[in-house]
Amino acid sequence: MRDRLVREVERVIGATDGLSAEQLAWTPAAKEANSLIVLVAHTVGAAERHILVNIAARRPSGTRDQEFAAKVDIAGVRSRWDAVKRGIVEVLDNLPPGRLDDDLPGPTSTRSVHAMIVHAIAHAAEHAGQAELTRDLAKERG
Hints:
The protein is 64% helix and 0% strand. By secondary structure, it is mainly alpha-helical.
């Protein structure tokens, strides 16, 4: 499951390869659409919250509001991902026996650790598809 989560987040990040700052910041006209930089920042942040915050009880390195403000550059998001990915690998590779069945405390109390990991993968995969489509549309614009 760890590898699948990493692969889906990296699909989102990979959608930015070779694009200009203008293309990264472009937002499609569709209702509630986001720019690639927002999709990337949010996907990295969500993976951090799903695994490092909700499962490992670590402090987040940013907020959801900051991700959607997208006042970051792609290099900053890639750097954040490098740190988040190391944390995800550490946490998921070292889950103690039986931990997958544990219920998570707080507002996620209806989810087990296993369900949270599955949710993290699904969330990243959804944004990967959006990012790839947004990339293709941005390229078509020129």
